[in-house]
Design brief:
By secondary structure, the protein is mainly alpha-helical. It has eleven helices and no strands.
Length: about 300
């Protein structure tokens, strides 16, 4: 749906999933009235049911033609081997990228765990605060993917490039503004989550350091979205490999553990990682190979 330009319908489906998930999780975790109190298992069941609801709603929307595209029975059978092969070529690098990112995330969390429970708790608070800045970047990434794909499909690569340039400006302004807020008010923002003074003080410091990531994070969102929209799923894989293997894990370990910078080293290393990813994505974008993938 997003690829066809319809971003509203997925938004409403996600909203329905979240409302259901909250109600179901509360009911299955605490078991009010006759319902069983399943604890953590109830949260897992609620999440699974919410995902099933979202998938069912999305499938229904497409079958009924309620979005910009419609799928009928003849589209699903018999199988189109050529289309399946093309989907495999596109999804293979994306799946590999996901494995690389998850593996890097496990190693990253292991490094943070070595810093102790205070640093781990402070890091989680800082990540929750920083996730607010992802929203404009993620939204623009989806928009740029759609615009680039449609522009290349129409044989207008110059329009695709114009979309990317405009996206970089808008994303940079929005997330740069968030970065200023993080730098000035990082510590007061962290106190919203509530914890011990030691944890909140460390979390506030991490949020302030997160301000360093915002410009390059904004660029990475847009550039990666433009490459994927063009059908180039290999380049984002290469970017993730560079970021995880050369910067995220080794730099964070060097700064946080070897040089004993603690949680500050974690966030400095993360900022270097995003800068490296954005620079690599920009080089790949400027080479222009993405223009020939869709064509």
């Amino acid at each position: 749906m997003r690829g066809s330009g319809d971003t509203r319908t997925p938004m409403w489906i996600t909203a329905a999933m979240n409302v259901f998930n909250v109600v179901a999780a509360y009911s299955l975790i605490f078991g009010p009235g006759p319902l069983p109190a399943w604890g953590v298992a109830g949260a897992g069941v609620a999440t699974a049911l919410a995902r099933a609801l979202g998938g069912g709603l999305a499938f229904w929307v497409i079958l009924r033609g309620k979005s910009t595209i419609r799928v009928t029975r003849r589209h699903m059978w018999p199988l189109n081997r050529g289309l399946l092969a093309q989907m495999s070529r596109l999804s293979g690098p994306a799946m590999t990228e996901a494995v690389v990112l998850r593996s890097g995330s496990l190693l990253f969390q292991r490094i943070i765990a070595e810093l102790g429970t205070v640093a781990l708790a402070a890091h989680r608070i800082a990540v929750n605060v920083e996730s607010l800045s992802f929203m404009p970047g993620w939204g623009l990434s989806v928009a740029i993917s759609t615009l680039v794909g449609q522009s290349l499909g129409a044989g207008r690569p110059e329009l695709a490039e114009a979309s990317v340039r405009r996206g970089l400006v808008i994303s940079g302004l929005l997330m740069g503004g968030v970065g200023v807020l993080f730098g000035l008010f990082g510590r007061p923002i962290a106190t919203i989550f509530g914890s011990t003074p030691e944890v909140l003080n460390m979390a506030g410091m991490a949020v302030q350091l997160a301000a360093l990531e915002q410009p390059t994070l904004a660029a990475q969102f847009v550039l990666a979205g433009s490459l994927r929209g063009a059908g180039d799923t290999r380049s984002p894989l290469y970017v993730s490999l560079v970021g995880v293997t050369l910067f995220r894990v080794p730099m964070v370990y060097l700064l946080a553990i070897t040089l004993n910078w603690g949680l500050a080293g974690v966030w400095f290393g993360t900022a270097l990682d995003w800068a490296a990813r954005a620079a690599t994505s920009y080089v790949l974008y400027r080479r222009g190979g993405w223009k020939r993938v869709a064509l």
